[in-house]
Design a protein that fits this description.
The structure is a homotrimer. The first copy, chain A, is of the alpha+beta class. In chain A, 23% of the residues lie in helices and 37% in strands. In chain A, the strands form two sheets. A five-stranded antiparallel sheet of chain A has the order 1-8-3-5-6, covered by helices on one side. A three-stranded antiparallel sheet of chain A has the order 2-7-4. Chain A starts with a strand and ends with a strand. At the A-B interface, strand 4, helix 2 and strand 5 of A face strand 3, helix 3 and strand 8 of B.
């Protein structure tokens, strides 16, 4: 069983899509969510306070500043702008896929865990996530 | 086949639990270990020298200092203390789950690989890890 | 179905091996690639411009400098040289395994996604990656 979930993004930050996954899973097995991009990530994170999401965005922007920052002057892959290579770096540090056991039709997420797409690019994108549950 | 492994923690650092997993796995398949929290992580790391574990703890504390550090003054989600949001950041950077092929009843770990829970919070916690082997 | 892929490395950097995996996968299921080491990583990254690979290497060398850098003077596990503990730190931050859905004999990689081994050590190594497709 598999499908592609499309998630529109409008700039850097976290986009929750737990509900779309909850509605889709069934039976028993290991759910995979796999993002088909190298400039956005997937994340399981705290689902209660939106400030966790903005703090995560604030931290990773500081850890990997745009190429326009003098500290990042060594970056060469900046054809698509100052957010190009930093997006690839963040995509290397953060998950390209999530894998969650499904038991009796329910993901075994903890109480405070939600599923997010973490967009690293400034421009709007339509992101594709493959959901797979064999 | 699934069970919940409970791991008590008493402050930041790595807690090995390879033996508990070795005792549980059988047959063939892909083992999943999934932590049901957003302020602790799972890790496969060097199992021979305890200084690797203390060095990892030392590095990540410097990479993501407590919110009481002036460099982190921009953090907003600090309701549970200066280790609150930094724990979420470390949980974003480090694995929420591990997935290890099991062949003829044995995990295919390398000679120097052990399985750890990486606690990011100061207060004692009882952490839950779902073990799943379909 | 499983096999071990051996990848020789000659210093830090990314080593692509997508083609070896493409040739091996078949049928339907979840492909696992698992590296049996704690001083090298696996990565899915941009496959078109080699500067992405050298920029990734440049970034992570700055984020985790060698133990000879005064900023890293607190590291204790340096028996094998200044690149010893930094390699373990990078191996903690970057994936120990990749998991990619295979549908009708093809991995569901995006257009720009390739599969890499990321070597963190200076000395030449022969790295072992377990490929598993149940």
């Amino acid at each position: 069983m598999h499908r592609v979930i499309e998630i529109p993004t409008t700039g850097p930050g976290l986009y929750g899509f737990t509900d779309q996954v909850v509605d889709w899973v069934q039976g028993d097995g290991l759910l995979t969510l796999f993002i088909q991009h190298t400039s956005a990530s997937l994340l399981i994170q705290e689902n209660a306070d939106a400030q966790v999401q903005s703090d995560l965005q604030a931290y990773f922007t500081r850890l990997v500043p745009p190429a326009s920052d003098p500290k990042m002057a060594y970056l060469k892959h900046i054809y698509e702008g100052p957010d190009d290579m930093p997006a690839h770096i963040k995509a290397a540090m953060l998950p390209v896929s999530l894998h969650i056991p499904v038991i009796s039709g329910r993901m075994c997420l903890g109480t405070w865990q939600g599923i997010y797409l973490f967009e690293h690019r400034e421009a709007p994108h339509m992101r594709k996530v493959v959901a797979h549950l064999p």
